Amino acid sequence: MEYIIGPVVYCIFVAIIVILGWFFIKKLNGWSAHKYSINVTNEVRDYLKAPQNRRKLELNDLEKIRENTKQKIISYMLILLCVLFVFGIKEGFSATLFLSFIVLVIVFFIAIFILSIKDKKELNPSYDGGIWIEKAYILHVIPYKGYKLIIAYFDFFENEIKTISIQIDRDDVGTPLHIGDYIDIVLSVKSSRLKYCRVVHTQDTNMYKEKTTNYMKKEFDEIVQLCEGRIEEYGDHASYFLEPANEEEILEWERQTGTEMPEDYKEWLKLTSACQMCSTIASLFFPEIVQPSFLPEEYVLIGNVVGDGEVLCFSKDTKKYVTYFEGKVNLEYDNLKSFLNSVKRDIKGELPRLDLSEEDLTRMKETLDKIRNAEK
Question: SS3 for 58?
Fold first, then answer.
């Protein structure tokens, strides 16, 4: 009897540890995915909500999905069997080890059987809500053991866009994935709730990939137009906009430096890898791997401002933008658009708008009155 109880207790203990670890990782991934929700533009929301981008799963879809799942189950099972076999050679084949072999083989056949029963149940029209395929938008990509993705999708039961973090194998997709791509995902209806299943196996199914309009494109076009309008004053070569950077170059920089670029700056680099606006007003460029020694470690140099030695950086921690001059931070911007707005004002020759409170205005009035009285 002890030969049976031992392996069973061990398997239960391992299962509990795995479940607790999985639950913790899931919560951590959920938190990390939530912060990317601000990058879902209205255009992406409208596209994900469109009914034509959602359909019921069909039998041929399911066969392709299950084929990959069964291959993974077989791979994991073979790895476990090999581990037990090596352990048996080293420590000797005992009754406990033999029973462990038997348990693994039984678990394997049970898993395959459950998948088969589940397929028939979920494809039945009377089943809860069936399985759906719909589009998801990639917000973040890390090429690690396949792909670690943060995606946005439309939950049509709760009528809201949700963001989740997922890990997929390279075998699950036919081509490299990039930020801004749309992919097909499987959603399973459970008790009037949507539960994410997996990315559709797209090796043979013509994955639909489409780039959304870069949300920095409007700012880019406006600045290019403003610079063209000042050619007479600044000259033909005072402004330039070089070829865009690609996703692979950005990911390689992030890998080598261990630093993640702000999402809006990534989008800007996909429009131009380096640019100069009206001579010395401002310039932006792809960051170097090694940062200049005069900058604090927390900042990454990405541009020049005014042309007097003031530089533009982003913070590795907060992802905000700052101008840095003579050893101190001058101005801080919450996002790249705020900085570009100041550049547009400079190109137009406008004074910056001051948002002053009533208290500030009163204090300024009192100061002016004191100056006038002193002059008298």
Answer: coil
